[in-house]
Amino acid sequence: MNEQGGNNPPGQATPHKKRTAFFISDGTGLTVEGIGHSLLAQFRDQPVEQVTLPYVDSEARVNQALQRIEQAASESGLQPIIITTIVSEQIRKQLHQSSALMLDVFESYLAPLANLFGKDPTRAVGLSHGIANDSRYSARIDAVHFAMDNDDGRRTREFESADVILVGVSRSGKTPTCLYLALQFGLRAANYPITEEDMDSTSLPKILRPFQHKLFGLTIDPRRLMSIRQERRANSRYASPEQCEFEVRQVEQMLRRAQVPYLDATELSVEELATRLMSQAGIERKIS
Alpha-carbon distance 125 to 25, whole Å? Predict the structure, then answer.
């Protein structure tokens, strides 16, 4: 497909138009999304609209996908991208008929692995996210329930069984990080918000002291914190610049004094926070 871009070099997007990348899977799409995001993150200066098409597992769904791909090409004048983890060879051949640049993960890697193992691949759909291992699935669900039950210090009596306890000011990213740790790694992650009352002392809150070895802190830029809190409680003292600055400063001092490791969550995604936290704290995943 020829790209219409005036005097732009070939392959570059025209102004105000976005190339579309389609992440296509015959399952949930989670695997191909992860691969696609990682690849496109290396080209952050390129405007790309990312579309996930899960459960493309029949001729009708393939045809619908092909229509969307060609529509995107027509509307933008730019060659789309397909990144796929489709198992079916027939469906992959159909996708190859589109005008898109196709990056076929299975086509690239299954053949070399088959040669190495000396056997053909199973070619079963949904193995990476299915309930193939009941104990692994149960551990994941148990961890998610634990994170939800122990959010915002609700059940401090369960801290003894936590793998990690996140601490920090309110709205610093503790809850989503706990849920990600549970869902991706099967970790029992609790969190406890350091409130203004806790800041009356320079020491850790009394309830946390027996679990100091499990604590990990999250901090955040006060301006970013103010922006987040404004969405929750606009024009309140809770969201004021002075209050946000005070709380962040006090909590950081408290964590340093108690020698609790912490990360700045301002510029990090939940995925980055979770993996960096595990690396820094020496915590190993419970499921793989």
Answer: 9
**Tokens 């609700």 belong to residue:** 154
Average pLDDT over residues 155-177: 94
At CB < 8 A and 24+ separation, what contacts does 206-212 make? 207/153, 207/156, 207/159, 208/165, 208/167, 210/159, 211/159, 211/160, 211/162, 211/165, 212/258, 212/260
Q: Are strands 215-219 and 164-168 parallel, antiparallel or unpaired?
A: parallel
Please give the Cα distance from 40 to 50 (Å, whole number). Answer: 9
Copy the structure tokens of residue 145: 């329930």
Cβ atoms of 61 and 34 closer than 8 Å:
no
Taken as a whole, the chain contains a residue count of: 288
Give the separation between CA 219 and CA 86, rounded to whole angstroms.
Answer: 41
Bridge partners (DSSP) of residue 34 are none
pTM comes to: 0.67
**101 vs 7: which has the higher pLDDT:** 101
Helical packing angle, 134-149 and 174-185, nearest 10°:
170
